[in-house]
Amino acid sequence: MPLAVIPGLEPKHLKKSVYAYITDELNLEIKSSHLWIKGDIANEFDAKILNIEPGEFMIEVDKVVSLSSGTPFEYSLSRHIYKDFIFEAIFVEK
């Protein structure tokens, strides 16, 4: 998270809820979260980290979270063993 977008972010905020800090203390509105989920083949590095064989199937998740201004403040890329991966989505209308 860039400090230019989320000023004052400290390790203590990471122990609780970064999103609560953003919305409650900075009074910023989180507007969107975009996820891209795809299958991929593990390379040597992925295999070592995930304790699988190179060439095995895995799941890759890219995530971008943005404020109501459209400014992205969080980006993550994670890779998961396909057998342990569960995707759950809950949609709530306001």
UniProtKB/TrEMBL annotation:
Family annotation (Gene3D superfamilies): Chorismate lyase-like
GO biological process, one term: regulation of DNA-templated transcription
Stretches assigned to the UbiC transcription regulator-associated domain: 1-81
GO MF entries: DNA binding
Name of the protein: HTH-type transcriptional regulator GmuR
Lineage, broadest ranks: unclassified sequences, metagenomes, ecological metagenomes
Gene: gmuR_8
